[in-house]
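re the bet — no i am not wrong, look at it urself. input seq straight from the record:
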Amino acid sequence: MKKNVSHGGTKAQRGDFESLVADITELAATLNQLHKQMVTECVPIVQDIVRSRCRDQQQIEHTLDRLLDCACIPEGLALFKSLCRYYYSLNPAATADYVFAYRDMWDSEEKDEALTEAQRRGGEGDSPRRTRRARRKEDALPLRRCEKKGSR
């Protein structure tokens, strides 16, 4: 026995959908505020770590873990990058792990696919041997919006 399925939906279904979208939008705004609050709390911690030349790897990694959660907003990403730059001189391998964790959590697949396509065409893809100037240009680029690929 076949059911008559309508693809347009009823007014009630559309209303439910609009309500769901409104709820999700509200949750996203709340999450964004929480990220901003976490960044505000982490600013003095990161400044103190860098200023005092702290070598306590456990404290630095705990702070990087917190920053990784809010690296989807520009302020969080900037703070995460600054602490990674500092930590790199102490523990390059652990810093690389944090950079890869950031990429797994927040980098978009579209960028990766476009990069791969450009490399196949012989275009301007990232090469493993980037110059300092190229890295500085990357750091000067505008920071991305929050694009979470998956949950931790």
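see?? The chain is about 70% helix and 0% strand. told u. also Residues 24-123 form one domain. so pay up
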